[in-house]
TrEMBL record, chain A:
Superkingdom, taxonomy of origin: Bacteria
Protein's organism: Paracoccus lutimaris
Subcellular location: Cell membrane
Membrane topology, record value: Peripheral membrane protein
Pfam family, one: ABC_tran
SMART domains for the chain: AAA (SM00382)
UniProt keyword annotations, A-Z: ATP-binding, Cell membrane, Membrane, Nucleotide-binding, Repeat, Sugar transport, Translocase, Transport
UniProt GO cellular component terms: plasma membrane
Predominant location: membrane
PANTHER family given in the database record: CARBOHYDRATE TRANSPORT ATP-BINDING PROTEIN MG119-RELATED, GUANOSINE IMPORT ATP-BINDING PROTEIN NUPO
Protein name listed in UniProt: Nucleoside ABC transporter ATP-binding protein
UniProtKB/TrEMBL annotation, chain B:
The protein's name: Nucleoside ABC transporter membrane protein
Compartmental location: Cell membrane
One annotated Gene Ontology cellular component of this protein: plasma membrane
PANTHER family: ABC TRANSPORTER PERMEASE PROTEIN, SUGAR ABC TRANSPORTER INTEGRAL MEMBRANE PROTEIN-RELATED
Positions of transmembrane segments: 32-54, 61-84, 90-108, 120-144, 175-198, 210-233, 245-270
GO molecular function list: transmembrane transporter activity
Source organism of this protein record: Paracoccus lutimaris
InterPro entries, alphabetized: ABC_transp_permease
Length: 506, 296
């Protein structure tokens, strides 16, 4: 195989962070080459340099036998590099055809372009209507638009930044079939991911990055997932430690909890009941949009409910707002990191004030104790290995996994009686996810009650002592996790309460 | 009491022209993702510069050219501060309005009580600026929806990060849009001093810039809607003048309030429809008012 792309000694430094350090690797024509690494390992910076969005401080790149130093993405596209972004670079208000035209140097006239889009999308088995507005498309369809935009330029190197993080398993399979087709036609594909199984089954080679440096280039099929993870993280992954848990007295009792159905989106909770003991982790599974967000809101205090529905030990919290519940010891971490759990524009110090202000005595007589707030933020950063220049950094500047560690850490260090988390490891790499899960287990071992709402069944089975399913706003009776089979869980998720199993259209 | 509808319509066209110019300019600026609240300041700047130039040269046409340049010059202050120094767009726009009003009050003193040269009538007895304003509506619509520069401008306004990721020069596109908005606002302001009032008075734009801003929202960022909004506003203005002249027993102050009340009412209706009705989300450009900062 001939190398289509080669990087030699690439380096890039941002204020406070050495993002890339002496990166050298090569991609051959016709191969699917994985770029593997934890959040913050420097994958995104590296591909942005290849695509001309970021200029390297040192080193050089060679593409198709020529020096490659694109001044901007248009130059990179002209050279034959195309990229599909992790966060889609699409325009919601524009049509599919307009979005694709924007990604081309010399787009043909509308009618001709629409015809070519229809033709190419059929050819790759990715049907798309060129006149649809992006806002009306699903995540998988949006990605098709991005991919078609790239394919219309006949790229020689296609970069894909975590493409499957937003796809359903079926959509991911279609994507891999397309990528395989492309590779067979000689296109080189640089595939960024931290999903190890995906890389092991679909990629020809993998270059592993850690802390901005290349660890090595390996054949992913010749290594087990734990071996790859160890290379990524730099040490053997910590094995989850479930020992030392013995449920104590009941800390949280929820009974007859219902929310009004008036809100336009989401599902109303219907007569939810649960009991949580000290030192116990209760896992709540279910397909997204079955009342998970509502349950968290009702427990955190964002939605007030009827008297007696939410009882912490002997105190009735049902009518209390979030801050009062926090003072009583009921803490929560919602799913949406940016905008719900944290204010993106605020520094980490300021974000700690939002939920930890009263419990940590960071606010005295109405005045903020900045030194104490900074210290607390610093302790969260240290305890949870949050990779950031410091507590003064804006929350929005952190990568997803690092912000999630911070958000969970803020609540865990808040010493809660009960902690409720929704999707604690969503979009987080393996190393960070393990750290977060361990922190939740440790918290329970120290005697707090923990509720984990998640769509990740493996996570729930790994963490929880008891498991229940949320389905159309109804919570099933809990079952001990030990001895629970996947088939039983499937039944709980689809057909709890003797309801009909959801029909899947053929 | 009789009000001749044709005469009212002709007057309406004149009354709508300053707002039509300013609102079309602001529409392009907002479609590029920038909220420039300095329209009033740029209009008053154009009103004085246009009046001064028309008075000095005796040519209304040269007056409008000078007004366009004055509007561009003022808009460039806003562009430099908001695009390159990343200042807050709302605060900077408000400052530009206050700056324009103060600056013209100072430099306008010598022109108080001076008469403007006469405008030449164009086809159908309407002056050329009215025709130009009407012609700009389809031109702006066509440029935004049917040309590649227009597509790029909308893309920049819709999602500046994505546009940047595709390699489009976000700041340069916005700079151009802001300059266009400045030129249009300047000419709109000059229409008030040169063609409507025929003299210079301090603060003579009297809130026309704010109405133009409101009309852009009213129009849901669509040039044809801007035309409708400008006519509605012009119509109410003319009608209240006529009613006053006809001696309707309503306090003059109430009638003068009518156009502004109409604007507020329309805006409330639109947001109510968005909140409770079908068209959720609205048509506002996705990146409107957000500062853009690219990490190299």
């Amino acid at each position: 195989m001939t190398d289509i792309f080669r990087a030699e000694g690439l380096g890039k430094t941002y204020p406070g962070v050495r993002a890339n350090d002496d990166i050298s690797f090569a991609v051959a024509a016709g191969e699917i080459h994985a770029l593997l690494g934890e959040n913050g390992a420097g994958k995104s910076t590296l591909v942005k340099m290849i695509y001309g969005l970021v200029r390297p401080d040192e080193g050089r790149m060679i593409f198709a036998g020529h020096p490659h130093a694109p001044a901007d993405p248009r130059a990179a596209r002209a050279a034959g590099v195309a990229m599909v972004f992790q966060h889609f670079s699409l325009f919601d208000a524009l049509t599919v055809a307009e979005n694709i035209a924007l990604g081309m140097e010399n787009p043909p006239p509308r009618a001709e372009l629409s015809r070519r889009i229809a033709e190419l999308s059929q050819g790759y088995g990715l049907p798309l209507n060129p006149a649809r507005r992006i806002a009306t498309l699903s995540a998988g369809e949006r990605q098709r638009v991005e991919i078609l935009r790239c394919l219309l330029q006949n790229p020689r190197l296609l970069i894909m930044d975590e493409p499957t993080s937003v796809l359903t398993p079926q959509e991911a399979e279609i994507l891999f079939a397309t990528l395989r087709q492309l590779a067979e036609r000689g296109t080189a594909i640089l595939y960024i991911s931290h999903k190890l199984e995906e890389i092991r089954s679909h990629c020809d080679r993998a270059t592993i990055l850690r802390h901005g440096k290349v660890v090595g280039t390996v054949d992913p099929r010749a290594h087990s997932a734990p071996e790859l993870a160890a290379m990524m993280v730099g040490a053997e992954m910590r094995v989850i430690d479930r020992s030392g848990r013995n449920p104590g007295a009941m800390v949280l009792a929820v009974a007859g909890l219902s929310t009004p159905a008036g809100r336009s989106e989401g599902v109303a909770l219907k007569d939810v009941a649960l009991r949580l003991h000290a030192g116990e982790i209760l896992g709540i599974g279910g397909v997204a949009g079955n009342g998970q967000e509502e349950l968290l809101s009702a427990l955190s205090g964002e939605i007030a409910t009827a008297p007696g529905t939410v009882m912490l030990e002997s105190a009735d919290l049902s009518a209390l707002p979030p801050e009062a519940r926090r003072r009583a010891g009921l803490l929560s971490a919602p799913e949406d990191r940016l905008g719900h759990a944290a204010v993106p524009e605020f520094s980490l110090t300021e974000n700690t004030l939002l939920t930890a202000g009263s419990r940590q005595n960071l606010i005295r007589r109405g005045l903020i104790d900045h030194a104490a707030a900074r210290n607390f933020a610093q302790s969260v950063i240290r305890a949870f290995d949050v990779r950031t220049p410091g507590p003064g950094t804006a929350a929005g500047a952190l990568s997803g996994g690092n912000l999630q560690k911070f958000v969970i850490g803020r609540e865990v260090l808040g010493n809660p009686r009960v902690l409720v988390v929704n999707q604690p490891t969503w979009g987080v790499d393996a190393g960070a996810a393990a750290a977060i899960r361990q922190a939740l287990l440790d918290l329970a071992a120290q005697g707090a009650g923990v509720i984990v709402i998640s769509q990740d069944l493996d996570e729930l089975l790994e963490l929880s002592d008891r498991f229940c399913a949320l389905n159309e706003g109804r919570l099933s009776a809990p079952r001990p996790t030990e001895g629970l089979s996947v088939a039983e869980i499937g039944l709980m998720l689809g057909g709890a309460h003797g309801m009909e199993v959801a029909h899947v259209p053929a | 009491m009789m009000i001749d509808p044709i005469a009212v319509f002709v007057l309406l066209l004149g009354a709508a022209t300053p707002i039509l110019f300013a609102a079309l300019g602001e529409l392009v600026v907002e479609r590029a993702g920038v909220l420039n609240l300095g329209v009033e300041g740029m209009m008053i700047g154009g009103a004085l510069a246009g009046f001064a130039a028309a008075h000095a040269t005796g040519s209304p046409a040269l007056g409008f050219v000078a007004a366009a340049f004055a509007g561009v010059a003022l808009s460039m202050i806003f562009a430099f501060l908001s695009l390159y120094l990343l200042s807050n767009q709302v605060a900077t726009g408000l400052a530009l309005t206050l700056f324009g009003l103060g600056l013209t009050a100072m430099f306008g003193k010598p022109y108080e009580g001076v008469k403007a040269p006469a405008m030449m009538a164009g086809p159908l007895g309407l002056n050329l600026m009215i025709w130009l304003g009407l012609a700009m509506v389809p031109v702006v619509w066509w440029a935004l929806t049917r040309t590649r520069p227009g597509l790029i401008l909308r893309a920049v306004g819709e999602n500046h990060d994505a546009a940047h990721a595709l390699g489009y020069p976000v700041r340069r596109v916005r700079l151009g849009a802001i300059a266009f908005g400045g030129a249009m606002a300047g000419m709109g302001g000059a229409y008030i001093s040169i063609a409507t009032v025929l003299q210079w008075t301090e603060g003579m734009t009297a809130g026309a810039g704010w109405i133009a801003l409101a009309i852009v929202v009213f129009a849901q960022w669509n040039p044809w809607g801007v035309l409708a909004g400008a006519w509605l506003f012009g119509g109410v203005t003319v009608l209240q003048l006529r009613l006053q002249a006809a001696g309707v027993a309503v306090p003059v102050q109430l009638l003068s309030m009518a156009p502004y009340l109409a604007t507020i009412l329309v805006l409330v209706l639109i947001s109510a429809r968005q909140k409770f009705g079908r068209s959720a989300g609205g048509a506002a450009p996705g990146s409107l008012g957000r500062p853009f900062h690219a990490l190299r």
